[in-house]
Hints:
alpha+beta; Helicase, Ruva Protein, domain 3
Amino acid sequence: MSIPATEVKKLRDQTGAGMMDCKAALEQANGNFDEATTILRKKGLATAAKRAGRSASEGLIGRKLSADHSTGLLVEVNCETDFVARTDDFQQLITDVIAEIEKAGDRADEAWLKDPNGPVHTRVAATIGKLGENMAVPRFVRYSGKGYVGQYIHQTGKIGVQVELGGVTPAIAQREEVAALVKDLAMQIAAASPGYLTRSAIPSEALEKERAIYRAQMESSGKPANVIDKIVEGKLGAYYKQFVLPDQESIFDSKQTVADRIAAAAKTLGAPITVSRFVRLKVGETSA
């Protein structure tokens, strides 16, 4: 039977389920609104909507890394409690979500992820119905075909890092030094949480804000403007050491910077190794 769009919208507003799910339920129920609601609840779709207001701040970072290190995937999957995060059903959800992202390939973007009628939403809704907690997949990051990819998951499973190296040729890809470097870098990023790969990547407005703060601190010093400028630029060095990966002090050797460790590895390997990109996901954070 033909279902009016107004009825579909009414069911969606009441249950929070996707438009196509609501239409299918109404068709199955021959237009009976209550029966359609029951159908959605049985599928876990209405349950998902009912629980949508509850915080899903727990969860885990899932990962997948190809054997040749050419492709890597990190995904954050949230739930309400750590207890549920450790269940087999939740672990299976992570596996299924990763499989869907891999299947979609380049089509897997934010719009695809958020599609209420998409495969990820469907799998999440079904697990919500089974486990009775709100869940979400807020983000994922996929690197493919541009370098040597390495990963690190902190032992709690709530922090995941993905690093991509440039300059790793097939001749050196299997060497221990490459694996050791990418692991060290990933652990560095997990522990020190850098925000930028290079100084030039820092937005100019962020730097100007820092400069303004440092100048304000020097206002009553009585020093000449040119001296203050030098002091301000010196203070920016500390900012770089905190937020720019190569400028950070190595967590493994305080006498070395990350740039020093990369340079040493490149010299040993005889190749111009660089870090081309990285990402750090922490459960519950709104950005990488």
